[in-house]
Amino acid sequence: MSHAHGFRADPRTGPRADLVAALRAADPEDPTLCEGWRARHLAAHVVLRERRPWSVAVGAVRGQDPTADLAATATDAAGYARLVDQVEQGPSRLSPLEWVPAANLMEFVVHAEDVRRGDGPPAQPRELPERLQVGLWRSVRAMASLRYRRAAARGGVGLVLVSPTARAVLARGPRSAVLSGTPTELALWITGRERASLAQVTGPDDAVAAFLAAV
Q1: CA–CA distance from 1 to each of 37, 77, 99 (Å)?
Q2: What pairs with residue 158 in β-bridges?
Q3: Could you point out which of 3, 77, 152, 160 has its C-alpha 20 to 30 Å from the C-alpha of 186?
Q4: For 58-107, what is each residue's pLDDT tens digit?
Q5: Are 23 and 115 in contact (CB under 8 A)?
Q6: 70: Cβ–Cβ under 8 A, 6 or more apart, which residues?
């Protein structure tokens, strides 16, 4: 818990600071891995998620897009800087997202890469500190199990998740596909960003084909 509280107490370090740095290094109109979103849209999404989550639900009912509306205030450098400042400041202490800091770990890591990799995978991916890799692995393993265990079973194959320091058998079968990479690359792959991820699916050809077809 000490690591989580440290992340919560000091927004100048850790995943939030990394996301903010990525956003500040980008222009408002730079592409991201989120289809249809520029850097300003992603920043607006984070602010709404933390400060006005109800506005997204209300907007859907009314046929409005609060993300687009907020992003429209950040088309110039000054407006974009103000929006990124709000990302850095984070939610109030009363926000549920402040009570469970680990809920932000995958969100911030993935969104930082959404900005950095808008034009494709980097030549030299960044490495997270070990303590964050451990936390991200836990989140990746849980999400991968939810997303792929049944899919692998439908395809009649096993699935093994592998990082440089950990391994998890998500589904058992007569032959298995192996999804491997660093926690960051795995996080990108399992959240639908396969084209920008350096994670790999290996194993017998028929197992790999069956797994990919099932997902």
Answers
A1: 34, 38, 12
A2: 176
A3: 3
A4: 666 666 688 999 999 999 999 999 999 999 998 876 666 665 566 689 99
A5: yes
A6: 44, 47, 48, 83
